[in-house]
Every structure is written in structure tokens, then in C-alpha cells.
Amino acid sequence: MRPSWKLYALECLYLLICNIAACVAAMVQCIGKSYQGEHSSFIFSGSSYSYNPFAYILGLVLFIGALYAGYRLILRRTMDELGRAGALFVVVWLVIAAVFAVVTVVAVSAGLFLAIGMSGNMRPEDFLKLTAFGWPVILFIAMLIMAIYAKTKED
Description:
mainly alpha; 155 residues; 3 strands
């Protein structure tokens, strides 16, 4: 069965909302950052900050909450249609998700840029990497799980 374009439009809407939520959540994570000093390298120099643990967790909860709430409000009712669709349409679903995962990297980077500036650096770097690169991976894996669940539920 061929799904309607409405399914892909709702997917794009969901992913756009998740991107906006990721940008805002990345900025929330920088609330209450504490100044750690200056850093310098061959080309760049700037300020180093450390995360406020409460704000970091709040930003993470906001992002995960947006993923879940968006699914419940936007995609849940249309997933049956994806389950009845052929493999090609599921591949298109995943390609759209992959493109938006890359856009999520840009959205999170924009949020961090707005919060700490171009030359700012957040410590510990593992938290920064989790936010900047882990969230897009989480978003893509969530879309993959939705597609697999829809297909197995239909079979």
C-alpha cells in the first residue's frame, strides 16, 4: 500500500519541532554555566565554562520530553499507515529522518552558539559531545524504532 504524503508531512513537522526543541534545550543546558577561565590554541582563544548539572539535566529532559510528546500528539495515529506501506516508503521515511538528524546537529550548534558564543567552550566536553552529536543519533534511532515497531505491529 502506498502511504499518503500527509504521513511524510507529519514526519517533517515532528522532526522540525524536535529540532527547535533541541536548539532550545541546548540553550537551557547553558543556563547557570560557571566561568572556568580562558583557553587558547594556535588559532582560536576564548572562554571555558562548565555546565550547571541541574540545567544540563533539565535540557536533556526537555529534549526527551519533546520527542515523546511530539510522537504522542503528531505521529502516533499515523504510524499504522507506515506499517502497511512497502519497504521503499519506509526507506524514504528513514532518509527524511537522517536528513533531519543532520539538521539537528546544526540546530544544536546554533543553540550552543547563541548561549556561549563562537569561541566559548563547555566542560566537560563529553557532555557537549552528547548534546551536539548524541541527540541527533537519539532522534534518528527513535525514528528507526518507530518504523520497525510499525512494521512488526502490522505483520
